[in-house]
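User: I'm putting together a small comparison set for a docking exercise, and I want a reference complex before I start. The sequence is below, and the ligand is adenosine monophosphate. Could you produce the 3D structure with the ligand included, as structure tokens?
Assistant: Of course. I'll restate your input first, then give the structure tokens for the complex.
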Amino acid sequence: MSATRILLLGAPGAGKGTQAARIIERHGIPHISTGDMLRAAVAAGTEVGLKAKAVMDAGQLVSDEIVIAIAEERLSQPDAKQGFVLDGFPRTLAQAEALDRTLEKLGTPLECCLAVTVDTEAVVQRLLKRAEIEGRADDNEETIRERMRVYDAQTAPLLEHYRKTGSRKAGSRKTGSLAEVDGMGTVDEVFERIEEALSGS
Ligand code: AMP
């Protein structure tokens, strides 16, 4: 039985969005991306969108308060009962702790934390290419470097958080397990590694 409550971690441009799309197609579970939800809020001109736009365009993080609220709201919807792929949330330790509490309350703890690892320079090149294709305002070189710096400072430490929660022993319920997956290679190759990691969780 494959894990269906999945967290995807990885640097910006590691291919999380692409792999999340493959996972949801294969397993029929919702894709929960705070980046997509924030972009939708910006496009709709909501209060959250107005607050988030400048921060997103600068490659920085939207406040924990805002993203925790939107992620909790989404995870509480009925379709997330059967599973989910979290992509781009959590990005800070405070968000990870809030997520742990929310999932505990909902009775749906994480089953697998997948860390997609890539080489940073390859990622920068991949993001520059995506910027050309999609015309995202947060994909110019300066912003890309800033997003990498923010990832290293604030999000990379989450690997340690999930390594620890993944190794909880008998007596307390296992809340997740960290699987590191090599994100270099074709989309199919990476997806195959992900499927293997999921079936082993
Ligand atoms: P993404 O599509 O996941 O790369 O997200 C795009 C942008 O949205 C990020 O660079 C942040 O400005 C913002 N964002 C998305 N998710 C989060 C989060 N969990 N915490 C803070 N900011 C976020």
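Residues 12, 34-35, 38, 55-56, 59-62, 67, 88-91, 95, 138, 147 surround adenosine monophosphate (CB under 6 Å). Residues 167-175 have pLDDT under 50 and may be disordered.
User: Thanks, that's exactly what I needed.
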